[in-house]
Amino acid sequence: MKFALLSGRRVEAQPKLRAICPACSGEVIAKCGQHIVWHWAHSSRSHCDHWWESETDWHREWKNRFPTEWQEVPMVDALSGELHIADVKTAANLVIEFQRSSIHPDEVRSREDFYGRMIWVIDGRKNDADRFNFRNMRSNPNSDGISQFQWFGRSTLFSRWHTLKPVFIDFGPEHGFWRILRFDLKTKRGLAGACDISGFVELASSGATDFSSVGGPGSV
Question: pTM above the 0.85 mark?
Fold first, then answer.
């Protein structure tokens, strides 16, 4: 967790500090090791949001592209009381989830149902083979920036994110940032659109779109 409340202010972790979780009001302790991303951890060793994953430099890099007040926004279901913390929630109520670890399709659907208006940004740099395979299995982008690809091998990268919500995959500076427009689970063929990160951030921040007009990889 990047932010906690100290004397009523949202602050980042600093050595030896203790503060309050802005979501559950539990005590959190600053974790500031030499080889980890500085963060806040619940003193109970159990995060109040069971969807939370350990943060990496990749998570921080993406979050920091957006205003701090949009980062780590607690959201509570008014009927059930269920609590989760959106990675980013824009002023237009668009939730952006930055996901590095693999999660079960049931959890993907649960998050989408909870957040409603949301998009996924996936870390495609975690597995070197995925990055190189995507580069080798796709066509060169056409005049609209669209590439066709066919996926081979054991990786489940695209089948895991066969959803109706917009999905973007960050393969890193050398391999690009792509929106996965379509993916067929049977043929393993798909369409992907090349995106500029700064343009994506500007558009997501503008409130002009939630990117849902063409759906996600699993849309017909």
Answer: yes
